[in-house]
Structure to design on (103 residues):
């Protein structure tokens, strides 16, 4: 896996020009519980797209880049933690059973 992250300068920020190393692999849909599913990888790719598109907007507040960066990292951490929940069902009983509206 290529761990080099390539960027280009856009205004005061750096825009990703290659996929983030955490999302570069391809996972089969037969779901290895210790790996991300294809859907989880796609969500991580979307967070990269959100970041890059946000960089194209005019700056409204000096802290907004930092704030959105923190929020995107929160989303990424939630997705990245999903294999851990799948691997540790004895610890996280009741997690991973489906959508929250299904109880």
């Amino acid at each position: 896996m290529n761990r080099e992250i390539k960027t280009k300068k856009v205004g005061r920020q750096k825009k990703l020009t290659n996929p983030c190393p955490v999302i570069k692999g391809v996972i089969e849909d037969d779901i290895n519980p210790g790996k991300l599913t294809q859907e989880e990888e796609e969500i991580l790719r979307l967070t990269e797209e959100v970041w890059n598109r946000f960089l194209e907007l005019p700056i409204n507040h000096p802290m907004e880049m930092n704030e959105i960066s923190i929020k995107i990292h929160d989303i990424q951490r939630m997705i990245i933690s999903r294999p851990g929940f799948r691997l540790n069902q004895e610890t996280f009983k009741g997690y991973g059973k489906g959508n929250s509206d299904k109880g």
About this structure: DSSP finds two helices and two strands in the chain. The chain has a mean pLDDT of 77.
